[in-house]
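Tokens as discussed.
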């Protein structure tokens, strides 16, 4: 049921053919469809001729990003209030209290 639609999409200056497939064919040939997506194609998934999802390539390949160094050091934690959870909480009593309010 794999068919090329009449409309082509432009992505980053490349012509990308839009493919359609039904759910059962997608399940049977998932690796093939993912390979096509990896090469720039988009796939529309149909359920009984109704489009339900679109699988599209990522804008940037994984790992293709820049890491910028911090422009200033992080703020010191000194001066922030401390939180202490030293008292124990009786969870059962709390639940009983909340249930009694219903």
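Sequence:
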């Amino acid at each position: 049921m794999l068919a090329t639609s009449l409309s082509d999409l432009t992505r980053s200056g490349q012509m990308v053919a839009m493919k359609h497939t039904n759910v059962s064919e997608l399940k049977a040939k998932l690796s093939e469809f993912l390979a096509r997506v990896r090469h720039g194609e988009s796939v529309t998934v149909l359920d009984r001729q109704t489009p339900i999802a679109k699988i599209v390539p990522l804008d940037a390949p994984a790992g293709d990003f820049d890491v910028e160094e911090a422009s200033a050091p992080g703020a010191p934690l000194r001066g922030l209030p401390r939180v202490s959870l030293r008292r124990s909480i009786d969870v059962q009593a709390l639940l009983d209290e909340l249930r009694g309010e219903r």
